[in-house]
Task: structure prediction
Amino acid sequence: MFELIIRDRCNGCNRCVEVCPTNVLEPGPEGIPVGARVEQCQTCFMCELYCKEDAIYVGPDRDKREPVNEAQIAASGLLGQYRRDSGWDEWASNPQYDNQIWQLGPYIQAGGKRSVERVKLRIAEQAKRSETSDQGVPGQPKQGL
Ligand code: SF4
Ligand code: SF4
Result:
């Protein structure tokens, strides 16, 4: 299951949010995505696969989370392993890593496009909500004034 995002590595691109097929991740208030619905994680590793910063760790157990911390995971050598072993990005030209996952390409891309639209919608809704709360209740002074 999804365990954590290493904050120091994350560039806030939200690619992991877009590609997650079960809507586990959410753009975070500080630019780092958060695991908002971890119970929906299906341990598919898509978020790891699409994270070029190797900032995400998904544990192998699909039924329960494992207690891990950033230092442990950073030292483990596991970050980026799945992306590398799948022959993605900078590993694509390395014959040692067979790029079989591209056989799923059309399905992943179709799912990815739908996810992008979904995330755009959520970000717009979030912006609208914070706009509304900034304006306060019509006819009443804003809180704290
Ligand atoms: S894909 Fe990686 S770098 Fe981008 S937001 Fe997610 S964790 Fe951060
Ligand atoms: S492992 Fe799959 S289901 Fe779980 S958070 Fe990552 S992309 Fe989503």
Remarks:
- The chain is about 35% helix and 10% strand.
